[in-house]
Amino acid sequence: MIFQPAIIALLLSSAICVLALAASAPFALEVIRRWDIASGSERQLKLERRTYLFSTLLAFVLVAQLASVLLFVFNAEKMSGMFVGAMCAVGTLNVNPWGFPALNAKIALFFLAAMWLAINHVDSRARDYPLVRIKYGLLLALAPLLAGSAWLEAQFFLNLKADVITSCCGSLFSEGSKTIAAEATALPPLPAMFLFYGAMGLAIAAASYQWAFGKGGYFTAAGAALGFAAGISGILSFVSLYIYEHPHHHCPFCVLKPEYDYQGYALYVPLFVATAAGLAVGAIRPFAGVASLKSIVPEFSRRLAAVASIGFLLATAVATAMILRSNLVLLEH
Amino acid sequence: MKLWLEKQRYLIDFTLESLARRKARNLGLLGVYTVLVFVLASVALYTHALRQEAANVLAASPEVILQRLVAGRHDLIPPGYIEKVGRIRGVQKKEGRLWGYYYDAVVKANYTFMVPNDGSVAKGEIVVGPALERSRGLAAGNGISFRSYSGKLHTFIVASVLPQASEIVSADLLLMHEDDFRAFFDYPAGHYTDIALTVANPQEVRNVATKLAAALPDSRPILRDEVLRTYASIFDWREGIVLALLSAAILAFGILAWEKASGLSAEEKREIGILKAIGWETGDIIKMKFWEGLLISLTAFLAGFVAAYVHVFYAGAGLFEPVLKGWAVLYPEFRLTPHVDGLQVATLFFFTVFPYAAAVLVPIWKAAITDPDAVMRG
């Protein structure tokens, strides 16, 4: 299975990313130990110059991570034809126990990467690089996570066996099983809708407040996390039903299939972007008090909040449009 | 936001101007890059089209084919065997099929002889496939003789030639009447080659196969889905192998890109020095270089992909055909249906743009930290 082109591409990109992070780790340590903005020494000058390289390198690595999440899901979807019992990406991810952990790790890394990039952005705009130590410290924390995610991915791909009979989305996202996904699935439509629209409303309100008044950074981040959870559970519990026009098909991956006109991407892309932007607001909030960031953090937060607010609004609107367009009747009038 | 866009626009403008000042050098890189994308995209497009073709061909084949095994080898279906299959819920139709291979010493190739179930071919006549028509110079109305395995000579009249459109499945095909078939091969009466079962509901196919295997332990059910899956993995595997072999080329290209990016000419160094002296920051230079890379990458990607598209779908993919397509004496001539797949484009992007970006990162940074006074003085 390893000779699938998309798998080679994914493994290649993971390997390059891990190597790049590993190469920058010694530098990160040096910065943490020796950084002194007030000094005019040769070493400080060298360090300052190197930060450009490593900031660019990391931005590159993290953007690659974002792209690889999409490619990973896209590939899992395509490969479902190769496994007996698989109907969509769920089947492929279920072929061995590494599939879902690998996906979850990638998604988690995506959000962490977005937060790091936000911190990096505000730091590089300030004259005195006030966050350089924190930034590289966080980077050192991120490196093992990236390596872990790459390892999970490699395990998943290396253990893909075509003779395994896997289970399809119908059995995983059914009302009877005992997982969190199943709990969300089993929610009756009406309360699920209240929860979805309530949480989305909160997320939009918090982000819009931040956008308009520049206040409430942590609320925006909390709202984004809530909005993400609500979005996913909403898709699981009722949006999917409306898309498939089937009262029992809860799969969150089938919406990405060509049979459903790739509608899922219209739902997931704004949701993920909005969540990442919202979390990033929370990530830079603690540094609002730093002297040289006094004007930078609020301004950037507002821009991020705008993205989050519009993204959540878009995701909600798309979901609502899907529900209104559907022929399925879940709620009797 | 508007300010940001304006800034990027000016940067792009400047970058394009600066690229145009060093035409020969940049065109060289662009050329190599385009060729790399072209090669990789040709492989990807070609295998995908073949996969698609296999899927289209098999779409009309029966869901389950039942073969009888004797000592692990394929054997004939004896009389009464079809009745033994019995009534299985979900099976719409079951019928015995008659087909076999015939080695023609004249063209040194194997033909597939087959009896159509609808009885559309009259006794003494045959219908031939396009490749057979070419290799033996046949036309409708001609007579042709084959020496059967028993040594007797049989003569048939060609009733018609199968249409070109079906060539991928019918190149070496020869359709004849059941009686002719049995006489030609000395096929025992009442025996069949295998049994084809039509199952309406795709989710039932597996159950039907299980029941068949239980009812007839000496049989082997072959599922269409499995055949399709096998084809898909074979083509994927071939594509993967070719890509893995080509990874040397990708690596070489990465080295070239590194070389090109790090070997800054004196003029270029001076340019960067002046830019910094008039107030550009290191970050701005990196941005400019980033745009430069992006412009080159996208141009090369687009050009290479379009060239590959033309190569595969209009020029018959002459460069990779032998590796990817497989080989046979009577190989069908067919035109692939153009098909572009999102995953493929994404994968290709990863294979080409990603290594390029990784390779030029360090040289770009090296260029960007150049001290203005050092360059201008030197």
From TrEMBL, chain A:
Record protein name field: Uncharacterized protein
Positions of transmembrane segments: 52-74, 105-122, 134-152, 194-212, 219-244, 264-284, 304-324
Report keywords, A-Z.
Membrane, Transmembrane, Transmembrane helix
From TrEMBL, chain B:
In its UniProt record, which GO terms are filed under biological process? lipoprotein localization to outer membrane
Which keywords annotate this record?
Cell membrane, Lipoprotein, Membrane, Transmembrane, Transmembrane helix
Location within or outside the cell: Cell membrane
List the membrane topology term(s). Answer: Multi-pass membrane protein
Cross-referenced InterPro entries, in alphabetical order? Answer: ABC3_permease_C (IPR003838), Lipoprotein-release_system (IPR051447)
Q: Which GO terms describe its cellular component?
A: plasma membrane protein complex
Q: Which residues form the ABC3 transporter permease C-terminal domain?
A: 265-368
- Coiled-coil annotation: which residues? none
- For this protein, the parts annotated as crossing the membrane are 27-46, 240-258, 294-314, 345-368
Q: Where is the signal peptide?
A: none
What is stated as this protein's family in its record? Answer: Belongs to the ABC-4 integral membrane protein family. LolC/E subfamily.
Which protein is depicted?
ABC-type lipoprotein release transport system permease subunit
Which species expresses this protein natively?
Sulfurisoma sediminicola
